[in-house]
Design a protein that fits this description.
- Helices cover 23% and strands 24% of the residues.
- It is globular and about 45 Å long.
- The chain has helices at 38-44, 49-66, 73-80, 170-176, 187-192, and strands at residues 20-21, 28-35, 69-70, 85-89, 95-99, 103-107, 121-126, 132-134, 141-144, 150-155, 167-168.
- Strands 1, 2, 6, 7, 8, 9 and 10 form a seven-stranded antiparallel beta sheet that branches.
- The chain has 200 residues and is α+β, with helices and mostly antiparallel strands.
Length: 200
């Protein structure tokens, strides 16, 4: 399918200032739609073709700049599973390993008035334990609502402007507790600044 011409406008943040508490964990989260690729977004019919395409492009940009990076393939596979990492090259010619782009999420508030300059889409990665996490290590919460429909929520921090990823060695990964986790010793400190500890 031929891709439509990209809009010249940059993607804007979406929704209102209202946030949702998810699954009793106390985090403020936003409802999102989850897609494994562009085609699944287009076929779902929730967003327009242009919105699906622009959101996919923005998620791919975030993946290119901010996907978790590791100095060894084995270290990457410990987080995401055997055969789930690819070797990439940075701007200075050095190489590193990152998980494959396995899907992306879009805020379900996309069609409401925007309120700033953040991002409304972001990539996610499948961990070795079958959970899905965003570039900053935040797990996507999946549950069924009262009508039996599958819903997804993610911390709104996942839609903030991503930071360029650093290539990590084993020492750095151990100190952070691994991808998508928060070490017990650092939990209170991480919670106080709203952050999450992971391998990157």
């Amino acid at each position: 399918m031929k891709r439509a011409k990209k809009l010249s406008l940059t993607l804007m943040a979406v929704g209102s200032a209202t946030t949702l508490a998810a699954c009793g964990d106390g985090d403020k989260r936003e409802e999102v739609e989850s897609y494994k690729d562009l085609e699944s977004c287009l076929s779902a019919g929730v967003f327009s073709d242009q919105q699906c395409e622009d959101a996919y492009d923005k998620a791919k940009e975030t993946h290119d700049s901010s996907a978790p990076r590791y100095d060894k393939v084995g270290l990457c596979e410990e987080q995401f599973g055997v055969g789930q990492c690819e070797q990439r090259t940075n701007h200075n010619g050095g190489s590193f390993w990152s998980p494959f782009f396995t899907g992306y999420i879009i805020s379900s508030l996309l069609n409401q008035p925007s309120y700033g300059g953040g991002y409304y889409s972001t990539p996610y990665y499948q961990t070795r334990y079958g959970r899905r996490a965003t570039w900053n290590g935040d797990y996507i919460k999946t549950y069924r609502d009262s009508n039996g429909r599958i819903q997804h929520r993610v911390n709104k921090e996942s839609f903030q402007k991503p930071k360029p990823a650093k290539v990590l060695n084993r020492t750095a990964v151990i100190s952070r507790g691994g991808f998508g986790t928060r070490p017990k010793a650092r939990a209170s400190k991480s919670r106080s600044r709203g952050g999450r500890s992971w391998g990157g």
